[in-house]
Specification:
mainly alpha, 5 helices, about 160 residues, single chain
Length: about 160
């Protein structure tokens, strides 16, 4: 038996997919400029690596902070920690090229790896959204509906 979802949940998942696509598209555009700066070498590359290091640290602190605040206050802040986590992962992948830990992993390979990671993330998210959105819509429970109507009415004596 498949679990049913509401129309609101379907719309929320579809909106999240569109939002993720927009964020990934903007990140891909920014990555083009980062790629050009890293390929140019010299001062531009060193400044770019410094900015990547700073953004990576901010991303790590933001991911941890938003996740903890989301857990403590039980709010939707936890969802925004994923943006900071993505920022941290991207910066770490790009900065690893400077540290030369992996042989043959240079600037160009780092940018390609980030593009591949972004594509894989979006494809997985699209498949998950497609599976969940294609589930049947839950029928409204009349008991819950009548209770909500009663709450709006004042009791008469």
């Amino acid at each position: 038996m498949t679990k049913e979802i509401t129309k609101e949940r379907k719309e929320q998942l579809s909106n999240r997919l569109v939002l993720n696509f927009g964020i990934l598209l903007a990140a891909a555009l920014i990555l083009l400029y980062v790629n050009n700066a890293l390929r140019s070498g010299g001062v531009y590359a060193s400044v770019t690596y410094t900015v990547l290091l700073i953004l990576g640290i901010i991303g790590a602190i933001g991911a941890i902070g938003f996740f903890i605040l989301g857990k403590v206050k039980n709010s939707k802040l936890k969802n925004y920690s994923a943006i900071f986590l993505g920022d941290f992962v991207i910066c770490a992948m790009l900065y690893a090229a400077k540290l030369s830990f992996i042989p043959g992993y240079g600037n160009i390979e780092a940018v390609i790896a980030v593009y591949v990671a972004m594509a894989v993330y979006f494809i997985v998210m699209a498949i998950y959204t497609s599976i969940v959105v294609n589930k049947p819509i839950a029928k409204e429970n009349e008991v819950i509906d009548t209770k909500s109507k009663r709450k709006g009415k004042k009791k008469r004596k």
